[in-house]
Amino acid sequence: MWTPDWPLDLGRMLAPHRRGAADPALRVTDSGTWRTTSTPEGAATVRLVRTAAGVAISAWGPGAEPAGAAVPEWLGAADRPEEFRPGDHPTVAELHRTTPWLRLGRTGRTWDALVPAVLEQKVTTAEAYRVWRELLRLAGEPAPGPAPEGMRVVPSAQRVLEVTDWEWHRCGLDGARRRALRAAATAASALEPERAGDSAGLQRRMCSLPGIGVWTAAEVVQRVHGDPDTVSVGDYHLKNLVGYALTGRRDTDDEGMLALLEPWRGHRQRVVRLLLAGGPRRPRRGPRFAPVDNRRR
């Protein structure tokens, strides 16, 4: 049993790691919240149950011990929100006051975050989630322990390198993302925090790989290190969300987004998370972006 000293919202804290309702690596059931993960000792399944006393933690598999021990940091125990000063912007100040549950969790596992981030490059969310499910069904190992049916563990870097071009095509993964994922798999051991170092060091190593850019690197360190400052520059929607929430303007580019977030340097990603949690959203107009199914190409 672990007892947080803040009003923890288990579902919202794990939401950044969940790739859709049918995610094979993270499920919410009547028996608890289940998550699979890799560890240096091997795969693990963790079940979390929110109780009046705190969070009951159970874990199975070769990596059960380190995975279970990492749960408090997954849920934000290492974060320092007291160091954040919201300033006088009314939206940010109000969101900071009304979302005491918001912490920036960190997993300490680069590979688990990097694989789905690569799959999410330059495609719709629905398409990325579909390929993620297909990849785990194809190459992921079954979740250890009494996990819900169909749960899988992210495939190892070696297993990813063994996937054939034909199997990738069946998953719907295009050539550019396929090459980026293979490059990441080749360097996977050097990307874990114990070798890559802090957030800045990990971003530099990832961006040195072909097909890995600043957006992917930011998405990874936000989850691996709980980085409170690194923003996902290059995101299709984020710049407009931030711009509208902070100024009411409908069109903002990446440079404008960073300028708006500059007063909170050191905690820019925390401000983004606050805005995502409850900031004003501009009305949606126009056609949705049409996904491309690479299995039919």
User: Which class do the helix and strand fractions yield?
Assistant: alpha+beta
Q: Point out poorly predicted stretches.
A: none
The overall number of domains is: 1
Under the CATH scheme, which architecture would be assigned? Orthogonal Bundle
Question: Approximately how much helix is present in the residues?
Answer: 40-55%
Tell me the name of the CATH homologous superfamily. Hypothetical protein, domain 2
Strand % is 5-15%
> How many H/I helices?
15
SSE succession: HEEEEHHHHEEHHHHHHHHHH
The overall strand count is 6
Furnish the topology, listing elements before pairings.
Blueprint: H1 10-14, E1 26-29, E2 32-37, E3 44-51, E4 54-60, H2 64-74, H3 90-98, H4 110-119, H5 125-139, E5 141-142, E6 152-153, H6 157-162, H7 165-171, H8 175-186, H9 188-191, H10 193-196, H11 199-207, H12 214-224, H13 238-247, H14 254-261, H15 268-278
Antiparallel strand pairs: 1-2, 2-3, 3-4, 5-6
Helix pairs in contact: 3-15, 4-8, 4-12, 5-7, 11-12, 13-14
Keywords: DNA damage, DNA repair
InterPro entries: Alkylbase_DNA_Glycosylase/TA, DNA_glycosylase
Organism: Blastococcus carthaginiensis
